[in-house]
Each structure stands twice: as C-alpha cells, then as structure tokens.
Amino acid sequence: MSLATSTEKTVTIVGIRFRPAGRIYYFDPHGQSFTTGQYVIVETARGVEAGRVVIAPKKIAESDVTDPLKPVLRLALEDELRMMLSFKSKEKEAIVRCAQSIALHNLPMKLVEAEYTFDGSRLTFYFVADERVDFRALVRDLAAIFRTRIELRQIGARDQAKLQGGIGPCGKTLCCSSWIKEFGVVSIKMAKEQGLPLNPSKISGVCGRLLCCLSYENENYIQAKQQMPQVGTILETPSGPGKIVSVNVPQNSVEVMLESGVTIQVPVPSNAASEMGDHKIVGGCASCSVKGGGGSCRCSAGTTRGDCHCGSGGCTTQASGCSSCGIKKETASVLSIHED
Prior knowledge:
Largest sheet: 6 strands, antiparallel
Structural class: alpha+beta
Number of domains: 4
Distance between the termini: 50 Å
Number of strands: 14
Order of helices and strands: EEEEEHHEEHEHHHHHEEEEEEH
Strand content: 25-35%
C-alpha cells in the first residue's frame, strides 16, 4: 500500500478483520473515530456483520482501494458482544450435529468448521471434498435443525489449515493461521532454486501442499546466484583446476570437483563475477560466466557447460586449446572426465 502524496486524491478508510489472521477489508468510517481492537458493525456483501478494527482511520490514495467502500454502521454494543460470544459457544455443537447429518446423507465431504454471525442470523459450515458435492438436501435438514439461514462453503487444503491452525515442521504456529492474509504462488521451482531436496515429505506443510515459506527467500536466492559463478564453470584453484558442481548460497561458497575427483569448498567474495582471489575462472564463455579469450563461444541451449561450441574452426583439445574462445586443453579434459 503506497502512501498518498499531496497531488493524489485520497480517501479515509478503516481496516476491519473478521477472522484471526484473515484478510483485512477497507470500510468507510463515515467520520467516526475508532481505535484498534474495537468491534464494529459493518455492512458487507453478505449482510450486516461484526468485525474487529485492525487499522485505525487513515487516509490512503484512492488508487489503493479496489472495491467501493461500504460504511461502518457503528460500534458494537455490549449486548451484541455478549450475543456474539453466546453464538460462538454453540459452534462446536453445530459441527457435531452437521457431521451427523452428513453421515446420514452419506456425502463425500469432510467438515472443517462452523461459524455463526454475531446475531445468529446465518450459520456457515466450511468443508473439504475431492469433487463437487450436491448438498441441497443437507442444507434443508440443517435449516430445519438450527432454524437459521445455512451456508455451506467448500474450501481447499490450505484454507483448512488456516482455519484449524497447528504447528509447522519448524516448531512454530502455522504462518497461514497466524499472520498470512492471502496465499501466494508457491512452485517446485522455488525448492530447486534453493537446493532443497525434492522430497514431498520435506517440502510440504501440514496441509499437504508446498510450504508457503519456500517463497520467503526465493528472490534473495535468485539475486545471490546471479553474483556467483555458475555450476559447470571451470575454476583454477591452488589445488589445481576443477569444475563447480554446486553452489551454496547461505554459506556464500561453491563446491569444486578437482581432476582427482576430490571436492573442495571455495568461498565466494563479493566480486565473484570473474575473479575469486587465488581461485581464477579459466576457459572461456561470456554467456555461461566462464572467463576466457573472448571469442564467439556458445553454450548448449539451457545449460551452463563450459565446453566450446565455436562456430568457426571448432574446438580442439590440443595444447593450444581453442583459438576462438581460449579454452585450454586441461579445461576440456576436466569436462570430459566429469561429463556424467
């Protein structure tokens, strides 16, 4: 959310949250003063509801408001708060009775949570299922049991974890149930970028989906790798030439395999694009970060190999190496030995 400048048109908003760690919705305070922590009655697309103020009235740029602002009607009265707590205490019983009805109708769905509105005018049941479920008969039965408006909402595995909460593999409360407002995109490519084991049991959360935290440092890994020599680059070390076989971003180092098959750890300084102190990058290709004679070497598509694919004259493995890109004989030898 950007700060409004003096030239931008501004609006006054108040931020309301209806569930713990839920999304924050903007409303029009209508000139009323509210403080964080207060419960207010607001008009929503689903009707009148009670929410908690998490952002006190403030001015923001009109461009930051995506939907028309609905009004905050008033502060919640003491009697309304008591009523809200009363209906809250009935939600567990509602789950039990709904589960019994689901079993009676033999429906392929798993009940997750029940939620009353503050005045009991609507009762919402959240459930997960592998496919669409025809629950019309169930809704009629529930309406007859609870004598109020009934809604059933099908949610995904991540939303289930957010509603139920729990402890993650890190030992802390689930991010989704404690502070994440909306779920972002998480892909297996992020795990690969960070060198994590592609084992579902190690990179999945309690919801069975990829860990949300894979996205937290992904951009930092991408930027750090751009400043480090790439896998496949040939390095001249005090122990002899070797090929980089892995990059360790947290330790800011690379693992180099020597001609003898021994691997060593080499620290990467800040100016690692072409020089690494006593460890010099040899051979030559600008496109794959292998420093060399500056010819027209082109790496294989989609790879970072350091062997030469020069367009003129080809590359030899003689003592003179390649005249176009400067790859030396020992460089080609290392690549051929460790090609597999």
